Amino acid sequence: MTTATNKEELFIVKEQDVVPLRNRVKEYGVKIGMSILNQTKLITATSELVRNLLKYGGGGRVIIESVTNGRDLGVRVIFIDKGPGIKDINLAMQDGYSTGKSLGLGLPGTKRLVNEFDIQTELGNGTTVTIIKWKNG
Amino acid sequence: MQNNLLASLKEHQNKLLTTWSQLLQANGSTDGVTEEEESKEFAALLLDALQHSNGNTDSDEFEKVYDLLIGISSSRGRRGFSPRENAQYLIAFKEAASSILSEIESDPVKLYSANLELSTLLNNMTILTFESYMKGREDVISRQIDEISEISTPVIRVWDGVVALPIIGTLDSSRTQVVMENLLQQIVDTGSSIAILDISGVPAVDSLVAQHLIKTVSATRLMGAECIISGIRPEIAQTVVHLGIDLTGIITKASLASALQTAFDMLQLTVVKRK
Amino acid sequence: MERIPILKMGDFLLVTIQVDLYDQLAENLESDLINTINKHNSKGVLIDISAVSIIDSFMGRILGNIAVMSKIMDAQTVVVGMQPAVAITLVELGLSLNGVISALNVEKGMDLLRAKMYNGDKEEQTYDDSNQ
Fold first, then answer.
1. In this protein, which residues make up the domain named STAS (chain B) (predicted)?
2. For residue B52, is it within any domain?
3. Cα B183 from Cα B194, distance rounded (Å)
4. Which residue of C56, C62, C86, C88 to mutate against A (max A Cβ within 10 Å)?
5. How far is B195 from chain C (nearest CA, A)?
């Protein structure tokens, strides 16, 4: 059972919102004593996902939460956009796939950086990506 | 509803303590002095709580009892008591209290309800002791895990500008992360441009371990240092080839000595024998 | 518009990134740097990223672009001071920054640039010799 203890919500509409978001996520990591390496992985994953949110979803909301699961502490970040959604989610999760002009390691690469990764998408209704990085994960 | 029989146990505190410690000694789940102090404090607090909180087991007095109990159990966990001994601690208390109750009350109905209430209370406390006992043990385990990962990844400065890291045991992903972190941090701290990863102590290299090794080499190169993998035993070379793992692009050496020789070559150093 | 300063030191350009990058800032750096290489006919670029705590795929791509673009313009790029956590994260992400040459610190990076220049000259020399 994963429960949230502390949460806040940020609206991301332009590129300049990205740096403050990364800093907020980092603060959540610092608060639970996450190692520098895991903090870096978490904010890098955040950076990748928020770029997708801006580029494909036209902006959206990001929820940051401190979560616990028994003895484990972690940070959960949820990215919610109301964009066009992803057509073929299995294809998007393959290494080397990209519709935009990036390197195409967005989603699968990001998944490797975190402990839990969940993506829900519906054509025309947007995409919600949830990631959790555990303190010792 | 508070049974006033339980409240009156306070008057028999000393007798209860004696009976309890006799029971504990009888089943051998005691270690003497520390415990006597703990037990005395616990009995005093619990009996006070029974006397003053009118059956409300969430009162401040009971909170104090629970806190103390959690402390006692986790410390018993760390002191190496077995789970059985830990459970017997409160069970013995219940027996002692129940024997005193039967001495001071003869009406079976009253005695029954007092015993029932005592049972419920102590059963809940037993669950609490178990949880904190396990927590105490888990703390020991997690501390040991930390220690193991600490001592199992020593980074050695073998030469000015050359660090070596012998890996003993299996390389899984969490271990690889610790290895990488330590190695890269040492590279930064010592300003070493060559790192040697010795895998003589790794029992087997499968495709996953190979992937971890390749990741470590890539990360080292990203930082601007070179990584040599040494200690490739014949059977490792065989499995690597049979599994079709591609190690080209990585400098591999059979022994730490030849890896060091390669490092010297890269640093344009020569070792000469004095005449 | 925020910009990252580019310093000229003889034949080399020195860039120290002191702030966390966002996409636009990184893109500006790319074009500014290439223009400056052209303006001064620089032979080498040293990018110090020791204060950068995050590099994701976009910024990684920019670094790669800079290395390749400067190479075409006959300038060598060396990236120095990458944090261990950043390096591990990049590898985990699947980004190996092909074409980017790195060094541990500014000093080693400078040595590397000079060595590259020297070797480059020597190669030209031999080429000339064989022509004569």
1. 152-267
2. yes
3. 11
4. C56
5. 12
Interval A71-109: pLDDT, tens: 789 999 999 998 888 877 777 777 655 555 444 457 888
B55 and B120 in contact (C-beta within 8 Å)?
no
Q: How far apart are CA B22 and CA A134, in angstroms?
A: 48
Buried b (16+ CB within 10 A) or exposed e, B254-270: eebeebbebbeeeeeee
Provide Rg for chain A, Cα atoms. 14
Do the Cβ atoms of C55 and A112 come within 8 Å? no
Residues from chain A contacting residue B177 (CB–CB below 8 Å)? 37
CB B194 within 8 A of CB B230: no
CB contacts of B219 in chain C (<8 Å) are: 84, 87-88, 90-91
**Domain with B230 in it:** 156-266
C68-105 confidence digits (pLDDT tens): 999 999 999 999 999 999 999 999 888 878 888 999 99
Given the DSSP bridges, would you call strands C12-16 and C6-9 parallel, antiparallel or unpaired?
Answer: antiparallel
ipTM over 0.85: no
Domain-located, residue B165:
yes
CATH (domain of C35): 3.30.750.24
Beta carbons within 8 Å of A29's beta carbon, 6+ residues apart: A38, A39, A42, A43, A75, A133
Q: Is B28 helix (H, G, I), strand (E, B) or coil?
A: coil
Please report which residue ranges of chain B form alpha helices under DSSP H.
4-7, 13-26, 33-52, 60-78, 83-104, 108-151, 173-190, 207-223, 234-242, 256-266
Q: Give the CATH number of the domain where residue A22 resides.
A: 3.30.565.10
pTM across the whole model: 0.73
Alpha carbon distance A118, A128 (integer Å): 8
- Dump pLDDT digits (tens) for A36-79: 999 999 999 999 999 889 888 888 999 999 999 877 899 999 99
